[in-house]
Amino acid sequence: MALLIDRLDPAALAAELDDKGFVCIENAINPAWIERAQAYVQSLVAQKGKRYFALNWLSREQGTPPQELTEDPQMRELLVQLAQIGCPTAKLDEEIYTGLRVVAGSTGNERSLLHHYDKHVITALAPILIPDGPKRRAGELIVFPNRRGYRRFALFNIIEKAIVQSTWYRNRVTSKLAAGDLPNIKYLKPGNLYLFWGYRTYHSNFPVTGEEVRATMLLHYGDPHPGSLVLKANTVLQLRDERRILTQKAT
């Protein structure tokens, strides 16, 4: 089993997410899974170099750490119930959308501080490799929780995201981050499982120093706008952009 937790109360977790916007379940993930996942990521870095890359749907590859975590019955039950509570009208697919994000090298810097909202109701984050520092150069997670509600129409969501995910708006938010430790900055630890309302939470991560590697696995569930062709087309473009990055030469 990838998870070491049982008998979680989804209603209590959802209430905490509504209240605080961010939940950490300590020591939720089996250390043996973490070791396998770290070796898995290091093998990918050896192939692709120390740079940013994102791989989606790795959970479809049987016998891999992403598949083990995604197919864990407790993980699925947790995400399904949280998505149902968070947005009762969301579509609950059979498959959990998964992504592995690796940030390192110069391209890692370029892909940092890209504040955004997720497309799904609930996001679960499992850290795999987290650098020790220095602060604000170790890929720390930045969250502005529960900044918006669910939009009735997908078009409103698209227009809103076009504004708040523009370069101008993102730079404006970044410039207002005060010095020092802030409650918006989350220091992640492998072994813990982190939860937030992805659709409602504006988030990103700090850059990573060139010799360090930051790797996280993300699980997303619950689609508030299942019928939107525009959002589906945007997903296709995003995946194409990530494939383009993968084909670039390692630096």
Quick overview of this protein structure:
By secondary structure, the protein is α+β, with helices and mostly antiparallel strands. The chain is built from eight helices and nine strands. It has one domain (10-247): q2cbj1_9rhob like domain (Jelly Rolls).
Outline the fold blueprint.
Layout: H1 10-20, E1 23-25, H2 31-48, E2 53-56, H3 65-70, H4 73-86, E3 97-103, H5 105-110, E4 122-129, E5 141-144, H6 154-164, H7 167-175, E6 185-186, E7 193-196, E8 202-205, E9 214-221, H8 229-247
Antiparallel strand pairs: 1-7, 2-3, 3-9, 4-7, 4-9, 5-6, 5-8
Question: Any overview of this molecule?
Answer:
The chain has 251 residues and is an alpha+beta fold. The protein has a single domain (10-247), classed as q2cbj1_9rhob like domain (Jelly Rolls, Sandwich), CATH 2.60.120.620. 37% of the residues lie in helices and 18% in strands. The protein contains eight helices and nine strands. The protein has a six-stranded antiparallel β-sheet. The chain has a three-stranded antiparallel β-sheet with strand order 6-5-8, with no helix packed on it. The radius of gyration is 17 Å and the shape is globular.
